[in-house]
Input
Amino acid sequence: CALCVCVLCVFCLCGCGCACVCMCVHACDLASLVCPLSILVLLLAGSVLFMTDIAASTRNDDNGISDANREDIRRMAGDVAQIFQFLNAGKGRHQVYDRLATFTDTIGPRLAGSKSMDNAIDYMHEALKADGLANVHGEDAQVPNWVRGQESATMLEPRNHNLAILGLGTSVGTSAEGISAEVLVVRSFDELHNRSAEARGKIIVFNQPFISYGISVEYRALGASEASKVGGLAALIRSVTPFSINSPHTGVQDYQDGVVKVPAACITVEDAEMMSRMAARGTRIVVNLKMEAKNNGLVTSQNTVAEIKGSKYPDEVVLVSGHLDSWDVGQGAMDDGGGAFISWQALSTIRQLGLQPKRTMRVVLWTGEEYGGYGSQKYYQDHQNESKMLNIAMESDIGTFRPLGLSFTGSPKAKAIITEIMEYLKPLNASRVVDNGGETDTNWWAKKGVPLGSLENQNDKYFYFHHSNGDTMSVQNPDTMDQCATLWSVVAYCLANMEEMLPR
Output
């Protein structure tokens, strides 16, 4: 390509000199100027191009894949070439980004159980029907109805300072006057218990370091109950993020049975560290916390479902998914608008190309994930008897940044098949296969032995924006979303179109 220096470009194949067929994953203006004759040649030659690449990289050792399965995968090279061209240089270029932008700009954040989430579900029903997908419907699930209300935290001593906070999901509120109390700052649960004699009647501030999300999130989940156990009146918890520009990050918290419920909110990294420094100098800190948060029990929400019916094995299913709900801040564009919409895009791409997979492709947009997977748990309860017909359950819920490959849980023979399919993603440098393919909404199926897959992507900045007002469309990139949609579509289509299901 004359306009961008990229080794991923596919030069003009028709010999007309137009040099306009570009599979470049960068922003090349030529990508939309596609020579019709060159497309025809590309589609006809795609099988040779992709099979040659696979043949060059195929190992001779016994990796558990049969010759029949390998040939079954290779015969789809032409279809895969169409998917690549459609999403990266054709009509489908930036389609997933544009759809997500319209949705998030129209609906905004979508807390499960809220009117906004109801509007989001209605919106998606109409969009999926308009896209020509089959069997569009909702499936009921009970989810919490938690309402944030107005909230504030003000430092009264040693100076007046407004703390940026976000109440944690399912937290109780305060009285109208709020809670005014001295602060005790700790860096760990151990320190809190060691200083329990100082804790009674105080607001506990947790200034735990960010180690990893999986480790540090324990403070968000359990901080309120741990504070209550030692007589604390409330918990203010340092946001679970490695980076902050005075941005609080919310999320669900979990009251322990038999422990008095006290209000809980997250504060910014900056404020947590400031109060920690003050406390180390022996400065008395007093904070007033006001929260109108209310828990209104369970209400009915819905998982949103659509399909492409299989042409040969319609009762066998490849499931792709993301969760439609989000927290009530930002736009929920990254968590998990991107994952939900590349899952829709996978089916949409196959339909728009007129491809006919042998088994059914199903997209499920979950509700209640942010509260711990309420929607997906109900779906599992309702459909667990169909587990033998579920070829794989895939969920994208850790960002749609530049794709790297697929996380996978399954048998060694199934992994060998996945590895072979992922050879198709080498043009995107996204062919690696790593372990642990389950996500919150798909992990239920592990007990039935169903293979699981999730998107592996370069998401090192994911927790910069996670559960914050910063989770907007500005985080998303249209080109990398196309690449993620390409990976998702190729994997789902190949698994839906193979003659055999994944071995267990």
Notes: The chain has a mean pLDDT of 90. The first strand starts at residue 134 and ends at 147. The chain is about 35% helix and 20% strand.
